[in-house]
Amino acid sequence: MPVRNGAPYVADAVSSIQAQSYRHWELVVVDNESDDDSAAIVGALAARDSRIRLITGVPRGIAAALNAGVDLARGQLIARMDADDVAVPGRLEVQLQWMRRTGVEICGGWIRQFGDRQGLVWFPETHEAIARELLFRCAVMHPTVLMHAEILKRHRYDERAGFKDYELWTRLIHQYRMGNVPAVLLRYRRHPNQVTVTDGAVLRAGNARLHASLFDALFPDANPDDAEILERVAERVPFSSLRDLEHAGSLLARIARDQETMLSQRMLDRWRGACRRSAPLGTAAWRCYERVAPQFAIPAASADRRLQAACALRISSDSRLGRGLTAANSALRRARHTAT
Question: Around Cβ 77, how many Cβ atoms within 10 Å?
């Protein structure tokens, strides 16, 4: 567990590991040049629990901290944890049992957000679905991971990469079996000081190259412009051409084919989102959506009256009016949920 200026949260993170139903662990906490009380807080907890080891003096940088922790870890398996999250009490036990049953070598799971944003976040269960979801996002949640120590000791975190975990997963997906437990393993704290919030755009800058490389490996027979079309979907860039919009839908349907239902639903959602952003193309964009939606094999996929109306009015979801309507609709759904 790396920590940098995590004094408000780190005690909760450590306590959640101490509360694990699986008891045979050590917790290596790497202080990454904190200038608050993080090290002192962890040091006090370590003084009362010999399973906790505090490491200081590591050069600044998340990759340096992660690699230092991996080097010092003594177990046959390594679990990741962040200093601002809270592991559920059965996390390690559930993962160990699931890895033994399925034979996966890298194991993550679902999270439940709390703090500035709330809600359940799904991740694909099977190795094949994870590989395809990686084309769009980090399909294995880093602080939920449990994996064989020899893998991380052999494949170190790349200090040059933006999102260190995403770069690592795209490297390892071709060599090791990955899977996600279909259950919540972690309460994931959302707050404005997270690196993904403060530096998200900078960190994503190198992802396009990784997306393209992974796409080429998964679909070696693809056309040269397929990866570029998918990257526009991943980056939520609207399409100005009906031809490109339909091309995007067909690619997403191909990625979803013969995969778990939730992955198909996610790809359909991405297709619907691309159409909403491209609504200025008019009713032709709606007809394009109707043609492609059945390819996802999701019941009632074409029944989206909001999208039909947006296309008729040529209101992009990225426009000020579109964002306002989306916010109003979300508020209405929350109000209905609270009322029930």
Answer: 19
Which residues form the domain of 309?
Answer: 219-339
Within-domain flag for 315: yes
Nearest to 266 by CA among 134, 164, 155: 134
| Percentage of residues of the chain with pLDDT beyond 90 | 79
Short-list 137, 1, 172, 158, CA closest to 70: 1
Answer yes or no: are the C-beta atoms of 91 and 185 closer than 8 Å: yes
How do residues 284-297 score in pLDDT, each as one tens digit? 999 999 999 999 98
Return the closest-CA partner of residue 214 out of 224, 227, 202.
Answer: 227
Kindly tell me the burial class for residue 70, based on how many C-beta atoms sit within 10 Å of its own C-beta (0-12, 13-18, 19 or more): buried
The crossing angle, in degrees rounded to 10, of helices 261-277 and 242-256 is 170
Structural domain total, the chain: 2
Q: List the beta bridge partners of residue 178.
A: 106
Positive or negative, the Cα torsion across 101, 103, 105, 110? negative
Which residues lie across from 53 on neighbouring strands?
Answer: 28
Amino acid 238 reads P
